């Protein structure tokens, strides 16, 4: 029901001709998703992993949904951001998007949420690809709805790079299926060691590495992200920045730690020799690039690429402490970037621009908004008690 209710709500929101009714459907769907996510988290923390076999077909033959303590938290953070952005979106969307497109906006928003939730809970790798495409296609549409003409170009750039990433992922999945005859994640983890000595599995691993790192915007495959975050509607930027790349990091964890295993990923394929240098370069260079930006949304976009570097750096150590740090920062970054981009959405509504020269004196004109922005900035710095 976590996935089904939003999936049904999306076409309902699109068919309603009144923007306020579409907004109400979106709010209801996101609140339901948050409630379901919290229930799943409560159950997994109390009783362990939950397994659900779609259509009654037993795994590995049927599609299995699995919720464990790790992806339960990912589901909660995605649903929480969705539930916060949906009410916030009403005023922002009415200003930035033409009235006839607003129902389509909410439909795409709900579909994007559905896809991200589906990626987090599915135990089937092809199902991962399906939900990835649902979330990606709706994200392309959401970005293209931006009022700036450059939003269409940003969306097209994201479409091209996202399609390349998705193609690499589905090729990797296909190669694994050819060698193992299964798409179930747990079954793949059991069967892959038997064929890991072949040339096909390293090739599949390479395709998946490129595809997933492109989706999570790891340097240097981040080129789609700055324009997408800058020119998308404010509500879209707040939602995607807080969720899409975080689900990409989750996919990285799920494939390389659960399916391929630590030994194959880091001892045989030496993934750390790729991830660690790229993460360090991202942290330094993207932070420097961010300093010189005049548009605050673009500044935060480049900052996001640097922060993804921090998450991947923790993962690249392949240790308990490194994983803990990377996952903790994933949740922290989702909350603080959501707060920062929503603050900029309020500034955009009030001032009509998010350029630095237009923000002089906003602390007096919008004290609560700028206070939230300051808290988010302090959290970005790492000041204690701001997480």
UniProtKB/TrEMBL annotation:
This is NADH:quinone oxidoreductase/Mrp antiporter transmembrane domain-containing protein. It is found in: Cell membrane. Its main location: membrane. The chain crosses the membrane at residues 70-91, 103-122, 128-146, 158-180, 200-224, 236-262, 274-292, 299-328, 334-353, 365-385. It is a multi-pass membrane protein. PANTHER family: NA(+)_H(+) ANTIPORTER SUBUNIT D1, NADH DEHYDROGENASE. The keyword Transmembrane applies. Residues 123-386 form the NADH:quinone oxidoreductase/Mrp antiporter transmembrane domain. GO terms for cellular component: plasma membrane. Keywords: Cell membrane, Membrane, Transmembrane, Transmembrane helix. The keyword Transmembrane helix applies. It comes from marine metagenome. It holds the Pfam family Proton_antipo_M. InterPro entries: CPA3_Na-H_Antiporter_D, ND/Mrp_TM.
């Amino acid at each position: 029901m976590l996935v089904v209710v939003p999936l049904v709500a999306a076409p309902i929101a699109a068919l309603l001709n009144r923007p306020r009714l579409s907004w109400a459907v979106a709010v209801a769907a996101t609140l339901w998703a948050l409630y379901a996510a919290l229930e799943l988290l409560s159950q997994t923390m109390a009783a362990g992993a939950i397994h659900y076999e779609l259509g009654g077909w037993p795994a590995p033959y049927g599609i299995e949904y699995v919720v464990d303590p790790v992806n339960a938290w990912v589901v909660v953070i995605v649903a929480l951001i969705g539930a916060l952005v949906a009410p916030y979106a009403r005023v922002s969307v009415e200003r930035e998007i033409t009235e006839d497109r607003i129902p389509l906006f909410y439909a795409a928003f709900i579909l994007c949420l559905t896809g991200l939730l589906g990626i987090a809970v599915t135990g089937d790798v092809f199902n991962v690809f399906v939900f990835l495409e649902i979330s990606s296609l709706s994200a392309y549409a959401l970005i293209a709805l931006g009022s700036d003409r450059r939003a269409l170009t940003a969306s097209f750039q994201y479409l091209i790079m996202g399609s390349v990433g998705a193609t690499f992922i589905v090729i990797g999945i296909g190669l694994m299926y050819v060698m193992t005859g299964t798409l179930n994640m747990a079954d793949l983890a059991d069967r892959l060691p038997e064929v890991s000595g072949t040339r096909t599995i390293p090739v599949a691993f390479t395709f998946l590495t490129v595809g997933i790192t492109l989706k999570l915007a790891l340097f240097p495959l981040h080129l789609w992200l700055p324009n997408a975050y800058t020119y998308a509607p404010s509500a879209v930027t707040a939602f995607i920045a807080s969720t899409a790349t975080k689900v990409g990091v989750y996919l990285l964890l799920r494939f390389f730690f659960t399916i391929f295993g630590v030994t194959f990923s880091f001892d045989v394929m030496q993934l750390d020799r790729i991830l660690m240098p790229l993460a360090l370069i991202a942290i330094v260079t993207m932070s420097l690039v961010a300093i010189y930006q005049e548009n605050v949304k673009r500044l935060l976009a480049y900052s996001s690429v640097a922060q993804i570097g921090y998450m991947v750096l923790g993962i690249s150590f392949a240790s308990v402490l490194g994983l803990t740090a990377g996952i903790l920062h994933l949740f922290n970054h989702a909350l603080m970037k959501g707060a920062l981009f929503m603050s900029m959405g309020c500034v955009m509504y009030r001032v009509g621009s998010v350029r630095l020269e237009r923000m002089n004196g906003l602390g007096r004109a919008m004290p609560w908004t700028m206070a939230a922005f300051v808290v988010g900035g302090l959290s970005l710095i790492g000041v204690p008690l701001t997480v």
